[in-house]
Amino acid sequence: MRALRHLNKYFRKYKSRLIIGLIITIIARIFAIAVPKFIGDSVDVVDLYLKNEVQNLELVKDELIMNILLILGSVLIAAFFTFLMRQTFIVVSRHIEYDLKNEVYRHYERLSLNFYKKNRTGDLMNRISEDVGKVRMYVGPAIMYSVNTVTLFVVVIGYMASIAPELTLYTVAPLPILSLSIYKLSVAIHKRSTIVQQYLSKLTTFTQESFSGITVIKAYGIEAQTQDNFTELSDQNKDKNIDLAKVQALFFPLMVLLIGFSNLIVIYIGGRQYIDGTITELGVIVEFIIFVNMLTWPVATVGWVTSIVQQAEASQVRINEFLSQEPEIVNHVKHTTPIHGNIVFDNVTFTYDDTNITALKGINLNVKRGETLAIIGKTGSGKSTILDLIGRLYDVSTGEIRIDNKKIDQLNLTDLRENIGYVPQDAFLFSDSIKNNISFGKEDASQEEIEAAARKAVVHSNITNFSKGYETVLGERGITLSGGQKQRVSIARAIIKDPAILLFDDCLSAVDTETEEQILSNLNKITKNKTTFIVSHRISTVKNADQIIVLDEGKIIQQGSHNQLLNTDGYYKKLYLKQLSEKEI
Ligand SMILES: Nc1ncnc2c1ncn2[C@@H]1O[C@H](COP(=O)(O)OP(=O)(O)OP(=O)(O)O)[C@@H](O)[C@H]1O
C-alpha cells in the first residue's frame, strides 16, 4: 500500500465529497435493511392469522398494505441514495483519474530526451492510460464497495445478531470462504488478463507498424507474409482470451453455489430452531434468507476489492517509477533572460551516455548575432549533435557553451527554447491542418503571418494548389505532402517564430537546387539580425555562410569561408569538385 500513498493528496483534495459519500452510503444501507424487516413482519402477521392468534382479517390486510407501502418507500429511498453513492464515489474517482493523468503527462513533458530513448513509447502510453485506469478502480469502485460492505456488515449483522444470535453465527460462517474463493479467482483472472493485455499490445504494435509502413510492405510485395504474422499473433491473442474466459466463467457459478449453501443453512438451522421454539417468529427465517442474499455480493467484493487494490498498487509503483525520475536538463534560472544570439563553444566535448559515443571532441566556435555558421561533414560526424546542444536538449560533458557571455545553463531554459527556431532533419508534422502546423511555432499567428512564412519557405504556391489550401489536414506524419514540401512547411514553422537563433538540420535535402536557392536567398534576408546554424551535405547550401566548419568523427577538421576552404586541399574542396562534376552546384 506504500505506493498508493501518492494518492492521499487527491483524497485530501476531494475530502468533503468523500465524507458526503460515506454518509450517503450509510443512509442507503439503513433503508436497504428495512426491506427484509417489513417482509419478515408481513410473514409474521399472516402466520399469526393462520394460527388464529389474530382473527380480524381487516387488521391483517391493513398491516400488509402498510408494510407494502413501507417496503416501496424504503426501496425507493435506498435506490436513490445508492444512485447518489455511485455519483459521489465514481465521480470523485474520475476527477482523481483526470488529475493523475495530467500530473503524469506534465511530468513526462519535463523529462529529458534520454528518458524517451530509454523507455518505449508503448510503455509511456500504458502507464498514463492503463495503469492510471487501474488506479482509478482503487480510488473509485474499490473504496465505494469497501465503504458499502463495511456499513452493510455493521448494520445488517448488528441487526441480525440482535434478533437471532446463534442463527447469525451459522449464516455468516460460510461467507469468509466465499470471500477467499473470490479473491483467489480474482488473482487468477488478473494474471490471465495481464497476459491478454501483453498479447493485445503486441498485436496493436504490429498492426500500427504495418499500417505506418504500408508503403514498404506494398513495395516489397510482402502482404502475404505480413498477413501470416498477423494471423499468428491473432491466434495467440485468441488463445489467451479463451484462457481468461474460462476462469471468468467460474465467477458467478461460484457465487451462486455459496449463496445457495448459506440459504440451505438458514433454512435448515432456522427451521430446526423454529420447530424447537428458539426462534418464535417465522418471519425471522424469511428475513435471514433475504439478508444472506444481501450480504453475498458485498462479501464477494471483499475478495474482488483486495485484488483491485493489489493491481492498483502494482500500477502505482510503475507510475511512481516515472514520476520519481528527475529531468536531466534542469532550468536553474527562474527570471527571464533575454537572448541576443552570440554563441560560443569553448572546448566542448559530448558523449551520449546510452551509447557511450563521443559525438563531439573539443569543439571551439564563435558565432556572432547576424552571422551564419554552416556545418558540413560525413554522416555521423556530430553535426546534429551541435544543434541539439544549442537547444540544450543535452548538457555538454566537458567544456562550455556560452550564449551572450552566459553559460548556457545560466539561461532561463524556456527563454532559450522560445528564442530558437529549429528545423529537424526528419520534419515532423502533426495530424492537423497545414495552417496549424505552421502556426505551431507561434500560436497567435494571423493568416497573413502564416502565409508570409510559407512564402519565405517557398511552399505557399504548393499549399494554395491543394483544394483546401491552408486548411488541408495532414495524415499521420504528413503523408499527403512530399518530402520537400514537409521540409518547407517545417521551415515556415521555424521562421514564423522570428527567433534570435535559427537551427536548420539538413532541412533542404529533399528540395531541388532551384527551390533551395530561392529559400536560401529568402533566408539571407531573414537571418540578417539572427544567429543561424545550417547543417548540410551540399556545398550549394553552405557556400554563402560566414563561416563553414567541416566535422569528422566529432572534430573540426577544417574551418573558414567558402573561398578560404576552396583554396585549401581537404574534404571541402574534394566535395566541391565532386558535386561540381555532378552539376549540383
Ligand atoms: N540520441 C543519440 N543517442 C546516442 N547516440 C547518438 C544519438 N544521436 C546521435 N548519436 C551518435 O552520435 C554520433 C553523431 O551523430 P549526429 O546525429 O550528430 O551525426 P550527424 O553528423 O548529424 O549525422 P547525419 O549527417 O547522418 O545526420 C553518431 O555516431 C550517432 O550514432
Automatic annotation (TrEMBL):
Gene Ontology terms, MF aspect: ABC-type oligopeptide transporter activity; ATP binding; ATP hydrolysis activity
Protein name: ATP-binding cassette subfamily B protein
Keyword field contains Isomerase: no
Protein origin, superkingdom: Bacteria
Organism this protein belongs to: Aquimarina intermedia
Domain ABC transporter stretches: 343-578
Lineage summary: Bacteria, Pseudomonadati, Bacteroidota, Flavobacteriia, Flavobacteriales
Pfam families (alphabetical): ABC_membrane, ABC_tran
ABC transmembrane type-1 domain location: 19-311
